[in-house]
Structures are given as structure tokens and as C-alpha cells.
Amino acid sequence: MPGMNAGVDLSQAIGDIEDFEADLDIFRGRLQQVVDEAVRETAEDFRDEVQNQLKQSDIDSDTGELMNSWRVRPKGLAQYEVRSTADHAVFLELGTQPHTITGNNWLKFIPDDPSGYPERNFTEEGGEVKGDFAEDGLVVSPLDPLSDADPETYFAKSVQHPGNEAYGYFQDAVDKKSWKSSLNGRIRQKVSKLIEEFEASG
Predict the structure, then answer these.
(1) Closest to 180 in 3D by CA, of 45, 89, 9
(2) What's the Cα-to-Cα distance from 66 to each of 2, 33, 51, 63, 164, rounded to whole Å?
(3) Which of 11, 109, 118, 129 has the smallest set of CB atoms within 10 Å of its CB?
(4) CA 71 to chain centroid
(5) Domain ranges of the chain
(6) Pairing of β 99-102 and β 158-161
(7) Looking at the whole model, is its pTM more than 0.70?
């Protein structure tokens, strides 16, 4: 009975597996990239919508500080944060109750009727403004850089702020559309394109 060769040459199969694993690693890396891109682009869209809500509310038309303060910051792979660098962003979003503001020598305001407020002269010592603050905290200073243009600008030791309206511009941006659906659709589109590219590459 002739001998039988029971051996199996697996070198080709092993080579194919190694090639597949290498392609799979490349695909995983690209998949992470496109998902990260989708999340970042959605975060940028949300930031733009927050700015659009601010523009519609007209609450930032004087300085543009709040409008220009919104940033998209990476927090990790496919993790992004949309936030403002302006301290007053949350106060305009949620509103505030009437409150007292206690300031430094440069806290100033323009009263509706300045005739009832006393004038007090200031001196400058070592680059700091010194002066005799009244108990009510209302003073006017010739050292105020705005005094020539607006002589009714007053310094204050403290002022009673009437509070801010809650504009809710951030929540309005959240409610504008389903951001989760928008993200999912963007991911599906990018992943489908990635699969087509890999299939075309053979």
C-alpha cells in the first residue's frame, strides 16, 4: 500500500491571516479617526448653533465677547466639549437674582440721574487709584479713562444689580434638533465611505 502524505502546508493560510490582521488593524485605526471626526464636526455644529441663538437674542451685540468666547475642546478620543471662556455666560443662560456687586476701585457705572451723587476727587499712588469712597459707594473720578468722553461715569464701592433675565440661549441650541441623531447619521455616512474605500483597495 503506497504511503500517504497526511501533512498539511499551512504557510499560505497563515500568511493570509497575517495580512488580514494587518488590514484589520489599519481599518480599526481609520474607524477611530472617522468616528472622532464625526463627533468633532457635530460639536462644531452645536457651537455654531449656540452662536446663532446668541445672535438672534441680541444680548451680545454691544461687545461680542460672549459670541466669540465659545470653544470646542478635545477631551479624549471622540470626546469634545463645547464651552464658553466668558465668566458671565452662565449668568445670561440661567439668569440671576438681584444682588450686590462689591468691586475694586475700577468698578464703575453710569447712573440715570447723576445730579444726586457726590463728586469725590481721586489721586493715583504707585499706579493704583486711591480715593475717599462714600458710604453709599458712589464717586466720580477725573482719573477715569472715560471721564473726558463721558463725565457722568461713576466709580462705585458697591452697586445693587437688579439681576439678569434668563435667556436660555444654550438650552435653545440643545433643543434646536436631535444632536444624537445628527451624530449617528454622520458616523454612518463616514463609516460607509470608509468600508467602500477598503473594498476598492482590494
Answers:
(1) 45
(2) 89, 31, 9, 8, 15
(3) 11
(4) 4
(5) 11-88+168-201, 99-161
(6) antiparallel
(7) no
